Amino acid sequence: MTELLARRNAAFGAGAPLFYEHPLHLVRGEGVHLYDAEGRRYVDMYNNVPCVGHANPRVVEAMARQQATLNTHSRYLHEGAIAFAERLAALHGKQIESVILSCSGTEANEVALRMARFATGRRGILCTNATYHGNSELVGSLTRLGSQPSPNPSVRAFPFPEKYRPIAPNLNEAQLCEAYLAELGKAIEDLRRSGDGVAAMLICSIFANEGLPDVPAGFAARAAAMVREAGGLVIADEVQAGYARTGKWWGYEVTGFTPDIVVTGKPMGNGLPLAATAASRALVEGFRARTRYFNTFAASPLQAAVGMAVLDEIEQRDLRGNVTAVGAALKAGLQARRGASEAIGDVRGHGLFIGVELVRPADGSPDVELAKAVINRLKEKGFLTSNAGIFANVVKIRPPLPFGMAEAEAFLGAWDETIAELAA
Ligand code: PMP
């Protein structure tokens, strides 16, 4: 282990992120399970990329068959990618007609932002103050700004909406919603005054990187209306929220707004790099006309075959139904355990995406040390989670979609032991 770590530091450069106090050396995955070099089995409660399960046979077969038949770039006619784009667009409302395929969430968000700038003739971009949408220079300039200005002068961040640590005390839900909308209003006004105006608001539909907050009812729809009123477009980042993660196809169905542009990534290829920017035909063609966009590995027969296999799995195994049922049971189980320890401040989430906020009982402040200890102890017990949120004190639970009731029950048992050991 120490030797492998030393080699990793040399090969990648020290500082490449790594989970857990004692890093995990994985060698194999199958379904919702991962296996380490000693043959120990873990329940994967974290990874959304292998959304239809590790080493999914249908996906593996589609990948191998297509690679053995034909794989080229996209400047030839090929039915596969066309059919995949048609199928993806059809999963949204009628405003979404055409698709630009790419290879990562970063690329797909970059396309979306540039698309919005071309369409509106404006430059300003709105995002939340605790978000992450990718790592290019433009998209990366939206990363976790807090109260700092973005390195990009056309970016404005507004406080992400949440009910657990509300922006102002003693407000009812409707007032809280207004308070957050007022902050968005200030950001819009600031962009207007700067001369950039509003090209787009880019938000994760369920504010995943913000720590999966419970959002005041109506916020997302009202925010979208304000952005459109200012002449901007609304981009839903569904890289984490989409593909049945919440039990619905899209996170925007949960928070209740209608995007102009939808970005998807991570789970689309079950591990094969595959992402998409979907919008109206007019928006997509406006972008294509200005850029002659081409992406070497995207819209290939391989991406299409794998993308189709993933959608087939979700549909034919009714994984949305599974997510809804198991997710509800797991969340209810965790909520029922809130009383077990005052360190459990909040349990929230949608479908198979749940966050447990750990706090210091004395003052309710975020307890990062406890979150880290819980995550490491859960790993020792065979359950892989990680942490999220602005204070990194939220235990993030986000297993592959075929995660079953038996695993949920086993996890709750391990959770009880862990809390009793560390935070009783
Ligand atoms: N959007 C969101 C909401 C994400 O969480 C991430 C990655 N964590 C991205 C975009 C970027 O995706 P990628 O790493 O594929 O570029």
Description of the structure:
This protein has 424 residues and is an alpha/beta fold. The chain has two domains: 2-52 and 318-423, Aspartate Aminotransferase, domain 1; 57-316, Type I PLP-dependent aspartate aminotransferase-like (Major domain) (Aspartate Aminotransferase, domain 2). 40% of the residues lie in helices and 17% in strands. A seven-stranded mixed beta sheet has the order 4-10-9-8-7-5-6, with helices on both faces. It has a four-stranded mixed beta sheet with strand order 1-2-3-13. The chain is globular. The mean pLDDT is 97. 4'-deoxy-4'-aminopyridoxal-5'-phosphate binds at residues 104-106, 109, 132-134, 204, 208-209, 237, 239-240, 265-266.
Shape label = globular
The small-molecule ligands in this entry are: 4'-deoxy-4'-aminopyridoxal-5'-phosphate
* Largest beta sheet: strand ordering: 4-10-9-8-7-5-6
Order of helices and strands: HEEEHHEHEHEHEHEHEEHHHEEHEEEH
Number of domains: 2
- Going by helix content, strand content and strand pairing, the class is alpha/beta
State the low-pLDDT regions, or none. Answer: none
How much of the sequence is in beta strands? 15-25%
CATH architecture of the largest domain: 3-Layer(aba) Sandwich
In total, the number of strands is 15
CATH superfamily of the largest domain: Type I PLP-dependent aspartate aminotransferase-like (Major domain)
Portion in helices: 40-55%
> Class of the largest domain, according to the CATH hierarchy?
Alpha Beta
Terminal CA distance: 33 Å
Radius of gyration, in angstroms, nearest whole number: 22 Å
| CATH T-level topology of the largest domain | Aspartate Aminotransferase, domain 2
How many helices? The count is: 13
* Biggest sheet features: 7 strands, mixed
